[in-house]
Every structure is written in C-alpha cells, then in structure tokens.
Amino acid sequence: MSLSGALNSAVSALNSQSQAISMVSDNIANASTTGYKTVTASFESLLSSSSSSAGYSSGGVAVSARYNITEQGLLTSSSSDTAMAIDGNGFFVVQDESGTTYYTRNGDAVIDDADGYLTINGYYLMGWATDQDGNVTGGETAATLSKIDTASLQSVAAATTIESIDANLPADAAVGDEFTTTMDVYDSLGTASSVTVTWTKTGENTWTAGFSDATLATDSTVTTGTVTGSIDITFNADGTLASTSPDPATISITGWTTGAEDSTITLDLGTAGNADGLTQYSSDSDTPSVDLKKIDQDGLAYGSLTGITIEDGGNVTAAYSNGETYVIYKVAVATFANADGLTTESGGVYSASTSSGTATLHESGLGGAGSIYGGKLESSTADTTQEFSTMITAQQAYSAAAQVVSTVSDMYDTLMSAVR
Prior knowledge:
Elements: H1 2-29, E1 39-45, E2 61-67, E3 75-77, E4 84-87, E5 91-95, E6 101-104, E7 110-111, E8 118-120, E9 123-129, E10 146-147, E11 155-158, E12 162-170, E13 178-186, E14 192-203, E15 206-211, E16 214-216, E17 219-228, E18 231-235, E19 241-245, E20 249-254, E21 263-268, E22 278-281, E23 291-297, E24 300-310, E25 315-320, E26 325-331, E27 333-335, E28 343-344, E29 349-351, E30 360-362, E31 371-374, E32 376-378, H2 384-419
Parallel strand pairs: 12-21, 12-22
Antiparallel strand pairs: 1-2, 3-32, 4-31, 5-6, 5-9, 5-27, 6-29, 7-8, 8-9, 9-10, 9-26, 11-24, 12-23, 13-14, 14-15, 14-16, 15-18, 16-17, 17-20, 18-19, 20-21, 24-25, 25-26, 27-30, 28-29
Helix pairs in contact: 1-2
C-alpha cells in the first residue's frame, strides 16, 4: 500500500506542478497585456484518513488557480486620446454584440470607425449620456447605461438667447445725441449675423436703445432677419443702472432668411443699482462716445466633430471645429463586494458570479470606486522576474516528483525480483 501511495502522491505532484508551470506560462505570455491580472497556483495537501502513527498512507497534493483580480497594476502614459485607467477599486463596463454585460480593467478604448462607438477589444464601452455641462441625465443606474456613441453629436450650433452688454453711455452727451455699436447674433442653424444698436439720449438720465434688422456678418448688405423691440433705459444719479423697460429687456428676430426658427434674445444690461453692466458717467471729452467694454452672447456658429478625448473623471469630451468642447458621456465604474470572485473570460473581461455578487455602478471616485485617469493605461501585474523564480521552483518540484516515480519503479522491480 505504501509503494502505491507514494506513486499516487508523486503523480499528483507531477500534475500539480505542471499546472503551476501553465499558470506561469500564461503570466509571462501576458506580461505586456493591458489590464492583465496574474493567476497563481494555490497548493493544498491531501492526507489519507487511514494515516496513523503506526502506518502512513500518503495522500499527495492538489492545486487550484487563484486569480489576483483586485491587484493594482502600474499606470503608464498613453498617446491615445481615448485611453484611460482606473486607480483603485472598480471595473469598466462593456457589452458584447448580444448585449451580455462584462467587466474589464483594460481601458485601451478605440473608436469603431464603422459606427462611431467606443470599443475595448471588440466589446462596447458603456457609460451614461450627459448634458453639455457633464451632468448625467436620467440617473446613474444600470437601466440608463448605453453604448458610448461618439457620433451622437456630429455637429453643434445654437441660437443666441442672451446678449450681455458692458458699456458706459456718456452722461455729458446732449439730449438727442445718437451713438451706435454692433452685436453679433447667431440663428438656430449657426449662421452669424450682426445687429446695429442705436443709443439715443432722450432726457436727463434716460436713454433708448433701438435695433436695426439683422444682416449677414460677412456681408452687411444682405438682410437676414427682422428685429422688433426697443429698450428704454433709466440711470440713477450716481451713474448706475436704475431700470429698463421692458424688464427684462428683450428683442425678437423673425423671418430668418436662412430658414432658422424665430429668435428671442434677452439683453443682460446689468443689475439695478450696480455698475456691472450699463453705466452713465461723463466721458470728459469734447466728442462724447459710448465706451463699449465688453459684449458677449451665448450663440454658437456651426461646428463639426473633430475629435474625442476621455478626460480625468471619465468624461468623454467631443471637440468641434468652432472651438467648442462638450462632455457627451461619462464612463461608469462597477464595483463588487468580492471582485476576486469574478469569473475570468477570454479577452481580458470578467463576468459576475454568485461569489462576486452583483455590480454596483458609480461615477469615477465616488462611492468607493477608483478614479479614472485619461491618457493612462494599466500595465499587466505580471512580474517576469517573479514568474521566472516561481517557474524554477515548480521545475525543481516536478523533477523531484519524477525522481520519486523512478525510485518507486526501482523498488517494484526489486520486489518482483525477490518474488521470482
């Protein structure tokens, strides 16, 4: 019984060490694989229940694979605008063509030229749609997760709705004096036009602002829209704005020749009692004039998509030819109660299991989730030096077990010779 037990024990050692070598081989092969987590051999002794002090029955050894899924890899810089990495706890959420959800630490995302989706190793990267300020719309739930479609906003344009004017109207102007300035406006199709503002002093501390029809910004001889509305302005004795009529001050532009929808523009002329918009102070000049300090508006010229970048925090930002940038998606981070219990799949992805528990979704850096860094990739956790050391140990153990097999064989031969 002892010889056969020794043989069985040695065979189990051969089998276990060969599996350990396989794990080392996989680790070395994936030393350059982004987001790869090492697998290590966990050995467990097997003892026969019949073993006693009077007689020993060998049991051998068993091996199991331990996946070091939660081990943090080194973050390295990447030249890709859509590369990202998680520093800390969590996984990127991806889906395959059938809609099955997986999780990965590989953040080497690329734009699928065929349809514009962000993909990682052929899996669709999942995130939440946002407004242009980067706020998630619809809630941060699994139900609102969607494939990140970089082509969802191929172009942008916006009509002017607010025009902010910071200017001084000369207090030393005579009643009836007129002064002109211009302001830019955009229609809903992104076409730029100009509107001339005529400032007329109507009395002591009172003015009127009149507006010309809109003309094409590139050709003032071409009328693009009809402007209606005028503004009566009153100043306090200290030169600050007192009131406007109407309040708020608004004008309308109708009949856009470009085919755009009608516009209503609110004029932000400042706060009553303050000098943060229109003021009326003396110009101290023989030829008074309007001192236009600043004029801003919120409209946008037409711009086409020029690039996609994933930034720190997981914001997917779209850049446009008009110089504007908008956040269009936010990458989700999934955490698990026991991430080491995830099931390892091919392609560097994991699937949830009863051991791992279900995923909890977070924004970057919130709720215990790690932080997403743009322009980074997480390196493989395989250390070739350590793997070679483990391989040598496994090789020596394998050779020793093979020697036991050879010794038992010799002992059997001796026994058989004695019988003959």
